[in-house]
Amino acid sequence: MNTPIRKFYYGDIPEENTGGSINAISSNEKAWPLWEVFIRSKQGLDHKHVGSLHAADATMAIENARDVYTRRQEGISIWVVESKFIHASDPADAESLYEPAADKIYRHPTFYDLPDAVKHM
Amino acid sequence: MEIYNLEKAFQEKIDKEIKIEPKDWMPEAYRKTNLRQISQHAHSEIVGMLPEGNWISRAPSLKRKAILIAKVQDEAGHGLYLYSSAETLGTSREQMIDDLHSGKAKYSSIFNYPTLTWADMGAVGWLVDGAAILNQVMLCRTSYGPYARAMVRICKEESFHQRQGFDALLVLSKGTEEQKAMCQDAINRWWWPSLMMFGPKDSESTNSDQSMKWKIKRKTNDELRQNFVDMIAEQIKLLGMTLPDPDLKWNEAKKQYDFGEINWDEFWNVVKGNGPCNKQRIAARRKAHEEGEWVRAAALAYAEKKQLRTKAKVA
Prior knowledge:
heterodimer; A: alpha+beta; Ubiquitin-like (UB roll); 2 domains; 3-stranded antiparallel sheet; 2 helices; about 15% strand; B: mainly alpha; two-stranded antiparallel sheet; 13 helices; 2 strands; about 70% helix; about 0% strand; globular
């Protein structure tokens, strides 16, 4: 699909008004930066993105993440990263990035039809 | 690509149940509708802490106090999930909070009613959270990805809210005559405002059609309201209490409850700001925000200072 090319730098937040409007901030107060939160639900599993929050620094971001995202034993470890450091692929590139994999079915074990006599494979 | 084609492709995605993510193209009206709905939802969670916070220091036992604190803390978390998802649509937290405080943004009118007795904590949990849950379960499947994910998280936490409310009323319903009367009184006061939570009738709701087409909503106001009535009309039997509606009765042909007409004048009045607590709620939010300003500034100044020190050490 030939979607107009756009650039995004800020995690989930569009850099420009993609079909919408960005309101100006009316108050003069300087905002706390936005952080993305990743939680390891139990030992041995990956950290998984769970959401985001505002905090003045990393220490506060972890403390707030604990209060907001692990009140019911959802995690045993927290990662936080400032959202502005996350770079993301462009949805407009989805076709060129991911479609080439669709016709490479020989990458899957089910592609190979072996005799039943072959064991443990 | 022409706007027309983009909109067509967008609608095709919606029809195929493909979620819309923040960086995907979307019509301006879709963004605005979501932004309005999600931010109002967030404001409702935050303002919703006030009527219940009122009873934390006066809860009848340590157990009830701990439960109430946990519930109010959950509401703060829910507000945060929703603000974050609204932020992905390109607005800022400060802007949303400003809009709430200036009265430009609305929150659910239910929180403009006062919580007069302890039984109100039970009625709010059972009826108000019960009504909210029906809406929120539907929204777990909404078409905008960040909103849907926030709702899944919220629904997981919310069912305890309704259960603890019913549990509190159940205790009162088995208590002294005074406790029973208090229980019935709370139900009487909260029943109609709870029905109003589902919004105007379908025939008068301006946003409904487009929201259904875009799968922001999947059930109409009237459908959700009917589900709620059918659910509560059965549950109240276990409390041995009654709902304050003489027209409420089972309709065997329709397999659902018929119920009386909502006082729409009251509904519009509260929406327009003339409810019992509208001024008080916004004043409380403003006060908290203004009095917290120096704390937010100090935290930021401290973070900057710490960063400078780290840099100095490295150098």
